[in-house]
TrEMBL record:
It comes from the Bacteria. It comes from Mesorhizobium prunaredense. The chain holds residues 477 to 726 of 737 of the full protein. The lineage of its organism: Bacteria, Pseudomonadati, Pseudomonadota, Alphaproteobacteria, Hyphomicrobiales. Coiled coil: none annotated. Residues 1-250 form the EAL domain. This is Periplasmic sensor diguanylate cyclase/phosphodiesterase.
Amino acid sequence: RQVESELRHALNGGTGIKLAYQPIFAADGSTILGAEALIRWGHEVHGGLPPAQFIAIAEERGMIGQLGKWVLQEACRFAVGTELPWVAVNVSPLQLRDAGFAEQLAAVLAETGLAPGRLQLEITEGVLLDNNDTTRAALAALRQSGIAIVLDDFGTGYSSLNYLRRHAIDKLKIDRSFVNLLGRDESSAAIVRALVDLADALDVGVTAEGVETEEQKALLVAMGCREFQGHLLSLPLEPAQLLRLAGLLP
Ligand code: G
Ligand code: G
Ligand code: NA
Ligand code: MN
């Protein structure tokens, strides 16, 4: 209702919405490999409205295409002006179902000049359940162009091994609910180890998200996980803060 019209206004003016960037680190805990763009809405009234909520509103009210395009443009524009190796952008299943998505993405890359190899798209398992040819072809075409496809929140959905086999994925992100239980409960360690081993068996990358303690990180390193994201290492940051932390600012 009101949130909807305010969001529409923000999207049209490009005011009030911005991206935060959460760095993703190598096992040394200091090398920044890339960063995930996370949308923030600093509305004076609805400010602090959690992204999950207003993204759901945008999805329901047919605004996710416009919002998603803004996020892609903003993230690509930011990354191209830096030496950050790559930027990861969350993509709604609704965006991927849109037949024009690949074309829109190609246009954003062309406009901004960002090399496709520096863009990663985070999709959720629900996308893989869309067992339709449009989604499968879209993912394959994006990957063919050099964009990496990352499966977010891995372990929480319904992805069977069959989906993983049928869809070409470059990296799995182990959901933070599993990472969070590491060190507290034995069976979580077994699950996380199995997810890391699965990524290895499929020859895809693996990121642990929501890493909050040294103990969790040490366990993950021992399991062979190679990328780490979470509050232990860094919160989502303003663009300049990210570049400073990455040593990419003078
Ligand atoms: O950290 P955070 O509160 O930002 O994220 C909450 C949820 O919103 C996460 O599931 C995250 O993937 C999602 N999200 C954050 N930014 C975007 C975005 O730009 N697009 C989409 N589709 N989802 C996003
Ligand atoms: O669904 P997705 O994985 O894109 O969600 C990313 C969300 O996780 C964002 O809301 C981000 O702020 C949040 N996040 C990132 N690191 C941590 C962490 O260490 N702990 C918790 N609780 N949330 C985190
Ligand atoms: Na994500
Ligand atoms: Mn996630």
